[in-house]
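Folding problem:
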Amino acid sequence: MDALYLVESVHYVVLLFRNLFFRFRKQHEQLQAVIVRVLRPTAVQGQLRGVAGTEQGVTGDQIETDDLSAVREVKLAYENVKVVDCLDLTPEGNAAWEAALKRYLYAGE
């Protein structure tokens, strides 16, 4: 009976972590989609404005570079999380997940 309880409790913890990782990945994909959707039209408008964009000292090419940089930053931040073993339920595995999450959250700073 104790072994069954242990297996069920470990299974429950694995399910909790799985849901945490799935939610994190979904939020990451949403963030990436928002960045692309919000910044891309700005780059196109900057190119079409031409003179108006250069009056403010910002050209369409600079905006595109910033867009690529933002997308690249999010992708690189996610790479920190991808290397964490999501099935490692030890205290070391938990610490690795928390450290990766902090690196992800503060990657752009």
Summary: The chain has four helices and no strands. The helical segments are 2-49, 51-55, 60-82, 91-105.
